[in-house]
Amino acid sequence: MGRQVRRAGAVSAVVFGAVSLLTAAPAMADTSFATGTVTYMCSFPSIGQQPLDVRMTFTGPASVPAGGAITPGGIAGSLVFNATLNAVTFYASNRDGIRGTITTSLTGTNTTPASAEVTRLRIPEQIAPYVQGPRTVLFEQDTSTVVPTFGAGTPGQAAIGLGTTFRIDGALRQKDGTWSPWIFNCTVKNTNPAQNRAFSPAIPIT
User: What's the pLDDT at 48?
Assistant: First the structure.
């Protein structure tokens, strides 16, 4: 009799556990967030202020509770040197490669803080022969990248956006294999209406 009671108790525990698993809320998957093209004016050596198009993506929570954490992850993006910049920076100067790091400001709406910096986004070494037209340079988050955490504000929505400043601590490669440091300080281009720098979609705050 005692053996039957113990067995019944074990079966009840298994059934209860199975019901708990069935009724548990599913884990919330991350969402992909992306900007459109944002144009910055950058200080190119020898040719002065020139436009550089930037796009960026990250993954983050599909929603957060008020006061919860929003930490962008898997940050990646692209820089587009237009045809003229490509010709002057690479072809006319006998260069074929670039590498470096990026520091960019981020803004937050209905977040704390309202702005912060991402540092040491990596531009991996990219060597390619000159081709007429725009040149696209990729960048990404790696283990050395420092990413801020934003605190979600009041219930509603939060939005993360690219800030007004963007800095490239780069190096350009001559075709003989030597590298020269180049620093590009960039400020978002003033337009009317102002450019939309927000990542989409917004993040629901519950």
Answer: 86
Q: Provide the whole-model pTM.
A: 0.83
Q: How far apart are CA 58 and CA 47, in angstroms?
A: 32
Asked if 59 contacts 203 with a C-beta cutoff of 8 angstroms, the reply is no
**Average pLDDT, whole number, for the chain?**
88
Check if the beta carbon of residue 25 is closer than 8 Å to that of residue 38: no
**Side-chain half-sphere exposure of 29, counting CA atoms within 13 A:** 3
Cα dihedral value 15, 18, 22, 28, nearest 10: 150
Per the CB < 8 A criterion, the answer to whether 85 and 102 are in contact is: no
- 138-174 pLDDT per residue, tens: 999 999 999 999 999 999 999 999 999 999 999 999 9
DSSP conformational letter for 180: E
Beta strands in the chain (DSSP E): 30-34, 38-44, 48-61, 69-70, 73-81, 95-109, 111-112, 115-127, 135-140, 150-152, 156-174, 179-188, 203-205
- Please determine, for residue 27, whether its predicted confidence score (pLDDT) is greater than 50: no
d(CA 71, CA 146): 11
**Sequence letter at residue 39:** T
- Per-residue pLDDT at 4: 46
